[in-house]
Amino acid sequence: MFTILIIDDDGIVQLTLTKILEQQGYQIITATSGETGLEQAQQLQPSLIICDWLMPGMDGIEVCRQVKATPNLSTTFFIVLTSLDSVADVVKGLDSGADDFITKPIEPNELKARVRAGLRWHQMSRDLQNQKQLLETELGEAVDYVQNILPSPMYQPLTINSRFIPCKNLGGDCFDYYWLDGDYLAIYLLDTAGHGLGATLPSISVLNLLRSRAIPRLNYYQPNQVLSALNDAFQMSYHNNKYFTIWYGVYNRINHQLIYSSAGHPPAVLLSKNSTDSSQIKLLRTAGVPVGMFPDSEYVNGFCHIEESSIIYLFSDGVYEINSAKGRDWDFEAFVNLLQEQYNNNSCSLDAILNHLLTLNSKTGFDDDLSILEIIFEGYISRPNSISW
């Protein structure tokens, strides 16, 4: 049963409204002042309020403003009862948050029709609010799941730290690193287009597929072959029009060599020092379209030697596609400069990087997932090479 609150200092008007609406099966509550009516509204959370505009003390417009400013009354439909009919009065009422007007003298059929329409609006608003809460709960569970399946930090024989900050609607970021055998380490980060569960599910599928090595006859030591296999398995025409970018690398800790391939993903950033102790930057990128866009896409490998005390940063575009308070003055180049500055000062810290990005961001949260891996090559281990490229 819908509850309707009538706020009017005129006893005859109260009685008239109550008699008409009780016949329609509604539960009616009355108040003779704006102050009392507002207290009852906050306590009882009615489905609909009919409130007189002109009352002593708190008038109907002020009651409306306070009702609309109360979160638990956000779906309450508010009708102003008035004898005023000028355009200026209507504008003032609407600006205060009123949803509808009923003019005096009251016409019963019009009253019943407007109340029915208001209650339909209230019910739809409640349904949407419930669906929103359900979706937020599901997204929260999805965030927890993604965070739980991401790898833990690695400390030996090299150090890998990571940070993952999901956006409000959860994007499609995911990453992993693990040893293919005792000497070869696989590292990758991917970003599915879009937000929500539709973007998260393909990312999780890729992680589970690669972690379990479930693609038959695939050489997981060859990044270009891995990307080709993923492109065959995740064509967007069969996966809800979702494609993803990915950077995939395999590090040989014996030869200190890295082989890598990318599919439309931002390049990894390799920071190292030369013989004069000056920093050097190398962007680890290869040509390749995002996975799932086109069948039979070809991917190529890139190679590099990893010097001792080098650091690689692998990240999603969320780290540099940020709108600051001054507008879009932060980009990929600015982010790379930040990494180099920290490296030159021997102060590399993911927390310091994230604090800088949080300070830069003009919003309370990021517009996209933010993921970053930091791979620190602190020392070498001398062992015979077991597998060659």
Main pleated sheet? 5 strands, parallel
Class of the largest domain, according to the CATH hierarchy? Alpha Beta
The helicity comes to 25-40%
- Rg is 31 Å
Percentage beta strand: 15-25%
Describe the strand arrangement of the main beta sheet, using strand numbers.
2-1-3-4-5
The CATH superfamily name of the largest domain is PPM-type phosphatase domain
Count of discrete structural domains: 2
Question: Which features does this protein show?
Answer:
24% strand, 2 domains, alpha/beta, elongated, 389 residues, Phosphatase 2c, domain 1
How would you describe this protein?
By secondary structure, the chain is of the alpha/beta class. The protein folds into 2 domains: 3-133, Rossmann fold; 150-377, PPM-type phosphatase domain (Phosphatase 2c, domain 1, 4-Layer Sandwich), CATH 3.60.40.10. The protein has helices spanning 11-22, 34-44, 60-68, 87-95, 108-149, 197-211, 223-233, 332-344, 350-360, and strands at residues 3-7, 27-31, 48-52, 77-82, 100-103, 159-165, 172-179, 184-192, 244-252, 257-263, 268-273, 279-284, 302-305, 310-315, 370-377. It has a 5-stranded parallel beta sheet, sandwiched between helices. A 5-stranded antiparallel beta sheet has the order 6-15-14-11-12, covered by helices on one side. Strand 9 and strand 10 (257-263) form a beta hairpin. The longest helix has 42 residues, at 108-149. It is elongated, with a radius of gyration of 31 Å. It starts with a strand and ends in a 12-residue tail after the last strand.
